[in-house]
Structure prediction request, 426 residues.
Amino acid sequence: MNVLLLGSGGREHALAWKIKQSKKLNNLFIAPGNAGTTQVGQNVSLDILNFDAVKDFVLKNEIDMVVVGSEQPLVEGIHDYFLQTAELKNIPVIGPDKKGALLEGSKDFSKQFMQKYDIPTAKYRSFEANTLEAGYAFLETLKPPFVLKADGLAAGKGVEIIDDLNEAKAALKEMLLNQKFGAASAKVVIEEFLSGIEVSVFVLTDGKSYKILPEAKDYKRVGEGDTGPNTGGMGSVSPVPFADAAFMQKVEERIIKPTLSGLQKENIDYRGFIFIGLMNVDGNPYVIEYNVRMGDPETESVMPRIQSDLLDLFDGVAKQTLDQKELNVDNRTAFCVMLTAKGYPDKYEKGKEMNISAHQALLFHAGTVLQNEKMLTNGGRVLAVTAYGNNLSEAMQNAYADVENIQFEGKSYRRDIGQDLLKFNA
Ligand code: AMP
Ligand code: GLY
Prediction:
């Protein structure tokens, strides 16, 4: 098969690395890719939101499958575009259509969906500019901290958690009246605060059956001890020790099954990944959010644990034969620490030369570029270092040992990824 993968981050490098191992693969193209993806496929300079350009490339290069890494093309309807274009309609797209992508593209839609299908989630209400006063009144009924979410896509920045009532009111006004997140905050979801520990669960579905992929824990704050601003993610660990069989059973019964049957009842033919961000509240799972793609940096610890042929699984998604495929998972722990540029997640440096010496860990590039045969930093998150271990502490040691073998000016990273999980297993 000839495969086109859309995206350019660490997630896409990890997906490309895994696809590259497939017996079914002929040529792998990554658009636009990064310096890392050139090791496993061919980068293509394409604007992935220009669907006509994607079409031309797909037809010229006899692409048999398109795998969408990031949410934006899905929310903008790339799957629908393929289905509606005669020459493309038989070329499978891994990722949902526009309606399915609303699970991530609209917080209001996803909250309504959860409420309709009895999927455990925080209590909520949605407000618009003309219901601002009602929003204030709703805030007054809640206990702090207050959780405010811009309805639309806001590059991971649309959620604010605020302790003070007056500040929460001001933030609501800022979002609704002053369009703090542009059109994304024309509507705002206010919800109850859930107290617990988070875990990311991943499901691959063909619309009929599903496979639960290895779960992972992500570390979102920039600073050690979960301090400072949110980032795209500073590291990840899979498996997550507290997500044991009993917990995962609850996730499957209370969340995964009703989600998939809800999608069917809404006539959404969902083919792709569902990423369920969960809070474990005293042993019970609650959905914080859905995403319609894999997580980044979760993919960098999840893909290394999948032993099955990923393209074969995708083929099952495309042909709705996923139930006939087997998912084999490596029992070892995969541990990922993200190396970031100085300044991230605010304004950060770019263009720093990178030196990588001998290493054991897998390196998944996030923000790198090749220029005149030199590898330069090209993003806030630069490179994910993923190592295996027979347990969490061993995987952790292996990953941090190799962090020393990657050098660039301003290199930053969290030294405490996974520390909070050590108490569950050593
Ligand atoms: P989201 O973009 O919806 O994943 O929210 C970003 C982050 O905000 C989540 O990863 C949680 O850490 C936090 N968060 C979101 N909703 C809640 C909630 N209802 N209670 C507690 N924390 C939340
Ligand atoms: N790691 C969180 C995300 O990909 O949204």
Notes: The two ends are 42 Å apart (CA to CA). The first strand starts at residue 2 and ends at 7. The mean pLDDT is 95. The CA atoms of residues 39 and 52 lie 27 Å apart.
